[in-house]
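@here heads up, posting the sequence + SMILES for the calcium ion run so it's all in one place. Ping me if the SMILES looks off, I pulled it from an old spreadsheet.
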Amino acid sequence: MGSMTETGKLVALTIVLLLVSFSLFPGGPLSTDVRADTPQSGPVEMSLSLAAAASLNCLSLSSCFVDPGTPFTAVASITSAPAGGYIAYQIDGVHPGLVSKAVRHAAPGVFPIEAPTQGVGTNAFLAAALTGSQPPQPVVTYEGPLVEVDLNCPSAGGVFTLSMRVEGTVGTVVVDQNNDPVAITTTALDADGDTLADKVAAALTVNCVDRLAVDIDGDGCVGARELGSDPTRGGLRDPKNPWDFYDVAGMAGGPDGIIDLLFDILGVIQHYSPGGGPPYDVQFDRGPSTGPNFWNMTAPDGVIDLLTDIVGVITQFGHDCR
Ligand SMILES: [Ca+2]
Ligand SMILES: [Ca+2]
Ligand SMILES: [Ca+2]
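bot reply: prediction finished. Complex structure tokens:
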């Protein structure tokens, strides 16, 4: 709690107990590439996202890639305010292995009474603010970024985890307004030393690796290949589109990095299902191309037909990312 006053602490704790359900969402004016999950239905939701000037790719709900040696910003936001509004926030986060360069309040116009941010230069941060200095504090329904933390991917690379936490007494279960239980089961995590255990409420993995050297979308082609100009080597594709390299598991084989007749083309043909019934199998399905090339295909659309799927895999015959 650091320098928060006792009154502020109580208010902040109350709000923290409300804000125990977290999600990822594309938020904040800094965001250049973030990943969203399915919007939650609860009255109070928080999110954790990344922003960067360049070299940021987020492809799963909880994993992003940043080039080694480049800066990025973690953004903690409120995405759904309580219906009755609120008067304070507290964000508690950890990022082991990454040292913060700055911790900022992101909504000073809404929360002018700011507790000094804590943790700059360490592996954790704590930030809290109020809408007013004395009761009755103005009640707000603000939704958007609350706290920003500047970090840097080490030149040597590595994989790091950002987490937001809530606190509670061991043995209790905190229930948020969605009735999502958050069990407080350990005192092993108590970064601020207040004897209240810390429960990891949400985490986001940051992969500090060269995105050109890895297969970010998991389709079998590394980024450098997908951005190349030779389609037979995996080029003229999108390193973030997992559906644009039609390598499947036909004839009981697995995806093998090359699109051939026996496994891939025949595999799709054998699952021909223009109506979506048997022998439909989603792994052989693709959605229509978005261009400019036929193989720039989209997510499975529920049918395996001639003009999209079979033609789609045939146009990629011989394309090789091995
Ligand atoms: Ca791709
Ligand atoms: Ca194959
Ligand atoms: Ca299809």
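MO: Confidence is low (pLDDT under 50) at residues 1-43, 175-180, 183-188.
MO: One more: The pocket of calcium ion (ligand 2) is lined by residues 247, 255-256, 258-260, 263-264 (CB under 6 Å).
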